[in-house]
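Lab notebook page, bench 4
Experiment: in silico fold of construct C2
Operator: M.H.
Input chain length: 331 residues
Purpose: comparison with the prior construct
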Amino acid sequence: MSTPIRLGTRRSALAQAQSGHVAAALEKVTGRAVELVPITSEGDTNRASLSQIGGLGVFATRLREALLAGECDFLVHSLKDLPTAVPDGLTIAATPVREDARDVVITRDGIPLHELPAGSRVGTGSPRRIAQVRRRAPRVEVVDIRGNVDSRLQRVASGELDAVILAAAGLSRLGAEIRLHREDLGLAEWPTAPGQGALAIETTTDADPELLAALRALEDPDTRLAITVERAVLAGLDAGCQAPMAAHASVVDGQVRVRTVVYAPDGVQRIGLDVTEPLNTGYIQRNGSGNDADAADGADPMAAARDLGFTVARRLLDQGAAELVSREHSS
């Protein structure tokens, strides 16, 4: 009997659920069992605010250490939690099809976020969401919260909070049954974090070639292209995952569109760009594989996607984004 493939994952219910989806897909590709290896990260044990302990890499560092130490064969991350720089010796082998990238508002009574009465308590631990809430609903009180999805929903159900902001993808992957009211926030007016809704499958650069090939079979080219643009914007702004900025790219009808906004922490000021480029321009040329390998005509689609993201970041900085973006980041 073949040795199981070991998948390193955080212990949270959401991490276990999304790892389980990837494990099932890989088992279909390889015919081998995939075993989950629970790993505790700093983000799971430190209950301080993410803005205080630093969101950049707080969930990924311990997992990556375990991978490099041989405690597991590959990892599954929420892509929005990953620093933009991949450590030496590691590679993002695949990005599966992206889930819904939107944020949602959960309330008891179904009142839209912008109509909540003055003094209503809205929970979120994300500086980006805090800025967006303050912009859309300036009369509410924003409460900095941590905790899993169930605990956040319970705080609304109990009346402790009037609303919470959550990621639609997390609710979907958990299969959460919600007896509260849900308001979906459109990406045009409420763009989300770079990589939100996407997963990153990471392994070592010297992993077994058969494992690398199997993982790459889970790749979705359009997802890889979109998140490459988004993460290049983030890297170009030198902002870090917890900066009050948003970037969402999509590939539709032969075009890539990226919507990005940088917010002042109070949400009053913002600088945004909405850029659409045809895929067959000098910016983006696809080879149909979604991998980093050069296309037959010499074009590298991922390099072109990064160039587009960096160009958008430079334009934001030229318009004054540097005055709004925190310059603090982790290496």
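Observations: The radius of gyration is 20 Å. The first strand starts at residue 5 and ends at 9.
Next step: discuss at group meeting.
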